[in-house]
Amino acid sequence: MALADHCAMMALAMAIDALVGWPGALFRWIGHPVTWLGWLIALGDRMLNRGRSGWRRCGGVALALGVIALVAGLATALTRVCPGVVAGGVLAWPLVATRSLDEHVRAVARPLIEGDLAGARRAVAMIVGRDPDRLDGAGIARAAAESLAENASDGIVAPVLWGMVFGLPGIAVYKAINTMDSMIGHRTVRHAAFGWAAARIDDGANLVPARLTGVLFALVSVAPLRALRVMARDARHHRSPNAGWPEAAFAGALNVRLSGPRIYADRVADEPWLNSAAHDPDPTTLIQGLALYRRAMLVLWVGLMLGAVPLWIA
């Protein structure tokens, strides 16, 4: 397929996801492609993550390459069995998380606005790994805003970008890479060596999308120059080589401070602030952040539609 076909596929996938998400009845019936990937990765983790550090690293490399090859092969076979833009868009639909990300962050914003900290803590625990019981209102809003910014990049922009370039195999392989990183790409005793390959591959796959997401946030904000300035200044100080870009742009766009020290179950992470001179986020920030996110996703979708113009006029 040509680039225009891929753009049309991704635009269709985004549109379907925005309209219906992934219905609960469908999930109960067949699950979800990410849960299928999760089962495969968990199986590989149990089988290969053994022995000394060197053997664990080799096992992790083998798992990463094996999963990528398997997913690429299956996706390529599907494009041959089910050719065309419409079929490709439907197959790519569950690999875009536009609606679910919006719903998860709104689930935090609603109780936070109502002053229900317990409900907000339960909701934010669904999307972040830090200890929710230690979070006050500002901490909950900050965690949700960071999750919205980061996941806009690796949950929507990155898969759509790789799908635009390589079609269904591109978006499927990216989703496999990102799922591996979320499951085994951690610096824990068990996964520091085994997840090394998954984490490095994920870093490479998100290099361009993370920066593009930051630019998108800046362009659709009320203060694009401030957002770009904060991103250029603070993104590189983030613990992640990629997550800092959308998060810093988000912080600058909303004029709040993000990141900073946080408490996980077993440790305290003393992270630097993004946009440190600004105030802490609050419930209003999340509402503004969701509006910013929706505008950015709309611009991304319009860009895909423009990229598909040669297909429409052919």
Strand order of the largest sheet: 1-4
What global shape is seen?
A: globular
- Average predicted local confidence, pLDDT: 93
* Largest sheet descriptor: 2 strands, antiparallel
Order of helices and strands: HHHHHHHHHHHHHEEEEHH
**Terminal Cα span:** 14 Å
Model description:
With 314 residues, the protein is mainly α. The chain has one domain (3-306). It has helices at residues 3-20, 24-30, 33-48, 53-81, 85-92, 98-113, 117-124, 137-166, 168-184, 196-205, 207-219, 224-234, 244-254, 283-307, 309-313, and strands at 258-259, 262-263, 268-269, 273-274. It has a two-stranded antiparallel ribbon with strand order 1-4. A two-stranded antiparallel sheet has the order 2-3. Helix 1 (3-20) packs across helix 5, helix 6 packs antiparallel against helix 14 (283-307) and helix 12 (224-234) packs antiparallel against helix 13. The chain starts with a helix and ends with a helix.
Give a topology summary.
Elements: H1 3-20, H2 24-30, H3 33-48, H4 53-81, H5 85-92, H6 98-113, H7 117-124, H8 137-166, H9 168-184, H10 196-205, H11 207-219, H12 224-234, H13 244-254, E1 258-259, E2 262-263, E3 268-269, E4 273-274, H14 283-307, H15 309-313
Antiparallel strand pairs: 1-4, 2-3
Give me some keywords for this one:
15 helices, two-stranded antiparallel sheet, mainly alpha, 314 residues
